[in-house]
Amino acid sequence: MITMDDVIREGHPTLRLTAEEITFPLDSSVSKLAEDMLQFLIDSQNPETAEKYGLRAGVGIAAPQVDVSKRLIAVHVPSQNEETSEAELSSVMFNPKIMSHSVQQTCLPDGEGCLSVDREVSGYVPRHKRITVQYQDAEGIRHKIRLKDFPAIVVQHEIDHLNGVMFYDRINPNNPLALPDDIDVLGTTEA
Ligand code: 4LI
Ligand code: NI
Description:
The chain is of the alpha+beta class and 191 residues long. The chain has helices spanning 28-45, 47-53, 149-162, and strands spanning 60-62, 72-77, 89-101, 105-107, 127-128, 130-136, 142-148, 183-185. A 5-stranded antiparallel sheet has the order 1-2-3-6-7. A 3-stranded mixed sheet has the order 5-4-8, with helices on one face. The N and C termini lie far apart (40 Å). The model has no long low-confidence stretch (mean pLDDT 96).
């Protein structure tokens, strides 16, 4: 299983590389990694397993964060709705690519955290509010999905890792809490 000891931290050069495309059929090592990454997220969100293994909670992880420079991400975003146990988005995406995006931007009101960053970095991280992402599944089948708001932010954060980009690269260095014109702050004026 993946634990925090497997997660590399900022300053490690792998986090600044452009990750390699994944080819199909998958190597067994890559399909195992994909399963382990998704399981890490599920375990990290479970208070008992998180405590037992010392996991920090996350909703997304990218292969470069476990020192594998390949274009693979896992996302597990729980539903806001307490009625359902089904996740809002739970997926492993190979070679994910943003095909199009809204002009409208959004950001999290309390900033972003990252499993590879052991400090609190304050500041707004502008993201596209809506994205269309193409990716391949473990069989190599292509999918195209539309995402908005939090799931869209998470996928953008993880795709950034495939391109050597850290969330704080996108914070305004002059004024971290300055907002670009007509960005919406998620959960403040909910439409
Ligand atoms: C426990 C159980 C407040 C501060 C609010 C926790 C289950 C920050 C938010 C979680 C913040 C779960 C998250 C991300 C932020 C902050 C990620 C808690 C896990 C909220 C996920 C990748 C950015 C994603 C919303 C500095 C490790 N996740 N919070 N950002 N949650 N979580 N990111 N921001 N301020 N990071 O961090 O997985 S995109 Cl689900
Ligand atoms: Ni991250």
